[in-house]
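Researcher: We plan to redesign the surface later, but first we want a full-length starting point. Tokens attached.
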């Protein structure tokens, strides 16, 4: 399952699609080690939208984490 498939938020899906479409046509995004401001911005927008779409998952994951061993 891709990161985009894990959310049900239309904005997160749209942000993911925009990031992927940009990366597919951007030489800098497809070149290892090259940087692309637009690609980075689109990826950050997706990450933020995905985080906002599932805030309860993050708090549940913390609650279900096992206690560290001593």
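Model: Full-length starting sequence:
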């Amino acid at each position: 399952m891709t990161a985009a498939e894990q959310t049900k938020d239309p904005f997160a899906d749209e942000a993911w699609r925009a990031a992927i479409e940009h990366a597919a046509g951007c030489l800098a995004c497809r070149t290892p080690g090259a940087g692309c401001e637009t690609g980075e911005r689109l990826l950050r927008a997706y990450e933020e939208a995905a985080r906002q779409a599932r805030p309860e998952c993050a708090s549940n994951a913390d609650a279900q984490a096992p206690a560290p061993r001593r």
